[in-house]
Amino acid sequence: SVSEGVGEVFVRGGAPGQNMILIDGMELMNPLHLMGLYSVFNPHTTQKADIYKGHAPASLSERISSVIMVSSNDPLRGETGISASLGTLTSGLSLTRRSKNGKWGITGGLRRSFVELYRFLSMQLIPDEDNYFAQSHYSFYDFNGRAVYQPFSNGLLSFNWYLSADRFSLGEEDKDDEMRTHFGNRAASLVWKHNINSWLSYSLSSAYTGSYSYFEGDLSDSYIDFDNEHRRFSLNGEISIQKARNTVTLGVKRFSYLTVPQDMSFVVSEDTVIHYNEFKNTQFDIYLEDNLRLSDKLQLTAAARMHNYKTRGPLRFSSKEGTLFSPEEWNNNRDINDFSASLALKWEPKPTYHFKLAASRQVQTVHLASISSLPLPNDIWMMSTPFLKPQTGRQISAGYYKNGVLFSYSGELFAKSMDKQAIFAVNTGDNEMELFEEHFFIGKGRIYGAELSGKKHYGQFTGALSYTLMRSERSFPAIDGGRWYPDKFDRTHDLSLSLFYKINERWEASSYFVYASGSNLNLPSGRMWLMGTVMNDYNGFNGYRLPPYHRLDFSLNYHLKSAIFKESVLSFSVMNVYNRANPYFAFFSVKQGSGKYNINISAYQVSLFPILPSVGWRFKF
């Protein structure tokens, strides 16, 4: 995520809603804290993370952009005890315990932000007009963990949970203009895994995912309350057969969805408008994957997944002539059948490097549509319906990967096309729209680019560098005559650099730098007088690109000697070292000039995060 205040992940030009982010089998629909500055994953409880950029295994083939899988620490292995961190930005506490016989264990972690301390201190020292924090407030927390039970050596039962909430407000409570938003995740899963013998295993699992966002805005004599919610319950079964050169996986999944994309009340003066929409859907998938080693140097992976998707309600139709189905046609289109497939070929001439060629077709039954030009975490999740079809994505990629003892690096080319892309039409001016689904523009997308990355693994000095050169475009018949235009988050350049230096046994330093091309939005390129009214002139859709986003973070750790704690570290960190005012959004202010046909136009940029120093102490016992 490389934009001011944007709490989403972007992979190879895909939209935020085209990524599936999992922790211990639970999907998280709101993936970041503090408008993108913090991950929802607690580093004290996280063990590892895997990412699939478009060519995910069949069991995870539910998004057209990427899958990010995060696994928590295993309480039956590794260290036990309590670890904590106390800091001026965030503080956290984690616990790991297991029984004496090693059959059960539990691990969990709790984090909370303390950004409001900066607001309190800054308001005592800095005038409001120069104070970043005077008109904003932010707080978040998360609580996650897992409990496991191993009744016998080849069987494992685990229960996992995740809770989080973010609160953000902009404006002053004693003024007329204020915006407040609240969003979060609620998730839980239960998993049973059993290795029957050395070549046969199976797993059974159930999972619940819930995400929500609430938005309130006060503006002079008007008030808006916009809420949305998405819930998913799943049952999964999988069997795996592993032989010397062949691994076959067969599985089934059953989903139930409840989505409330719009629960809105809008008050202007004494008039109130209320809109409420709710959708229920089910889905049944069956998948098969075969990982076949053709030779010592050649490996083939083929996968297929069938989707049967049903719309359960509400049972409504539109009588608007020429746009939507009749009730009979609606019933005939309630079932949607589609498929996902992937094929990957890996050639490994030597153990230190390999080449990979892959192609895939993915189907995604859920849409995430933006309701505002501002990057707020209140975009709406909307399930597919007979009128809003599932989106599909096709991707091909080719890459070279070098894995050395000291260094590793890779290069990859990719191209992707997408259909059934949706944009929420906030202001269409069409009062005849009868169904919520009619408020979406449907179009297509295309993406192409190259990725380069390198990493140094060992030594006193280590680090990682990644760079992406990319183009991401969209086309909608209802927008600019169907012409291709740059996507809102099209990033021509995307670069990140992380460095770590171990000074000695007590001191270590690290830094992180990120640079990305600015986001695209609609701002007028000119204005004119027309019949006594100021009219805007635009240079194409998304024709204005914000200044680039870049930021440098730095931290310094000092390991304290202690007879009480297993580990005791004092941390000094600075986020946004050179106080870069990255653009959150931009706008023009137009006022009457001195003459009848004169206007004064001023451009403004809003930024969120200045330099943020912090001090922290983490310890284990």
Q: What is the fold's blueprint, element by element?
A:
Elements: E1 19-23, E2 26-27, E3 32-33, E4 38-39, E5 46-52, E6 66-72, E7 81-87, E8 90-98, E9 104-113, H1 116-125, E10 136-152, E11 155-171, E12 178-195, E13 200-219, E14 222-242, E15 246-268, E16 271-293, E17 298-313, H2 327-332, E18 335-350, E19 353-364, E20 366-369, E21 380-383, E22 391-403, E23 407-424, E24 440-456, E25 461-475, E26 485-486, E27 493-502, E28 507-516, E29 520-521, E30 526-530, E31 533-537, E32 544-545, E33 549-559, E34 567-575, E35 585-592, E36 599-606, E37 612-620
Parallel strand pairs: 1-6
Antiparallel strand pairs: 1-2, 3-4, 5-6, 7-8, 7-37, 8-9, 9-10, 10-11, 11-12, 12-13, 13-14, 14-15, 15-16, 16-17, 17-18, 18-19, 19-22, 20-21, 22-23, 23-24, 24-25, 25-26, 25-27, 27-28, 28-33, 29-32, 30-31, 33-34, 34-37, 35-36
CATH architecture tag: Beta Barrel
- Overall structural class, as computed from helix and strand content, comes to mainly beta
Shape: globular
- Give the strand tally: 37
Mean pLDDT: 86
**Strand percentage, roughly?**
over 45%
Low-confidence stretches: 317-324
Biggest sheet descriptor = 22 strands, antiparallel, barrel
* CATH fold topology: Maltoporin, Chain A
* CATH 4th-level superfamily: TonB-dependent receptor, beta-barrel domain
Structure annotation, total helices: 2
Percent helix range: under 10%
How many distinct folded domains? 1
Based on CA atoms alone, the radius of gyration comes out at 26 Å
Measure the end-to-end span.
34 Å
Please report the first level of CATH classification, the CATH class. Answer: Mainly Beta
